[in-house]
Amino acid sequence: MPAFDLASFIANNKEDEAQKILHSAMKEFDNIAISFSGAEDVVLIDMAIKAKKDLKVFSLDTGRLHAETYRFIEQVRKHYKINIDILSPDRETLENFTREKGLFSFFEDGHKECCGIRKVQPLKRKLDTLDAWVTGQRKDQSPGTRNVLAFAEKDSAFSTETKDLFKFNPLANWSSEDVWNYIKMFDVPYNELHLKGFTSIGCEPCTRPILPNQHEREGRWWWEESDNKECGLHIGNLIPAAQA
């Protein structure tokens, strides 16, 4: 396979054409997968399934998700008739962590170590097997960490000395309203927690509904400063290597 020309890809795609970006990425890479957890990601699955039947999708099961989220994952699997690769934390690492620090240490010393074990490590294992991945990140989800988000990029967090990994963010310029308009227009499945005031949905202990006029990320890790609301899956606030 010829080397991927990122500059050419960016030049030949427009940042406001999400479906074209996604379909172009899937044409460029056979070994590409969509990371699935929330509403934006199902929009991507819906777009992708229209162009490619053997779609690769993976999801992180931290062991601390809401029951509604587990039902949502299964709903998406059945609705689109796809396989979803469920990624779990390393058993021994997680058992040692919870034995030493208990189940709620993040309330005392921050969420990054827990996220490193439950999210970043499993993600890294998966990305080591891929050439490219697709995320549902949007610029307006987390001002300060995602406001310069590119729709296509070399993944500087998970590329290695011997292998470049590329990341595509087709919805980078979408708003929450854009996402929900698409969901309603095409009858896309969504997490029932959205009907209970939840916007950005993560692990059960670390997620709560938001109040009117609050930013959507304010329901995540609410006990921490607002500039710290990333879990390490994306370069903006990647956790230190010692914790990953």
TrEMBL record:
Top-rank EC class of the record's enzyme: oxidoreductase
NCBIfam families: APS_reductase (TIGR02055), cysH (TIGR00434), PRK02090.1 (NF002537)
Origin organism lineage: Bacteria, Pseudomonadati, Pseudomonadota, Gammaproteobacteria, Oceanospirillales
Biological or metabolic pathway of the protein: Sulfur metabolism; hydrogen sulfide biosynthesis; sulfite from sulfate
Reactions this protein catalyses: [thioredoxin]-disulfide + sulfite + AMP + 2 H(+) = adenosine 5'-phosphosulfate + [thioredoxin]-dithiol
Protein name: Adenosine 5'-phosphosulfate reductase
Record's function text: Catalyzes the formation of sulfite from adenosine 5'-phosphosulfate (APS) using thioredoxin as an electron donor.
Record: residues binding [4Fe-4S] cluster: C114, C115, C203, C206
Keywords tagged on the record: Cytoplasm, Iron, Iron-sulfur, Metal-binding, Oxidoreductase
